[in-house]
Task: structure prediction
Amino acid sequence: MDSFNNNVIKRIYELTESREYTFEELAELTDMGEKRFDEIINGKECLTIYELFVMSRCLGVTMDYLATGGENDETIKLILSIASRLDEHQLDDVEKLIQSLRSKNGQ
Result:
């Protein structure tokens, strides 16, 4: 697992603890199921964009905070505004597009 995903997981751990949730409660709140949640928390799988969105909502932070640990700038605010209006299928399409662009750029 790369450092980006490790940092996201670290922030999820910190927020879960500070909000006094158990991982089982957070798995239920996010509607991921315990097995999927465990795979993410244990670094076996990465969050999808939709899961990152749902997780951020449940933890009361922005997607930007989970992803970077930082505050939003204007570009991020615009992206979050647009993303908040997308449904699960549209977010999956965006994720596929990003993955395609990354593979074309050798990332």
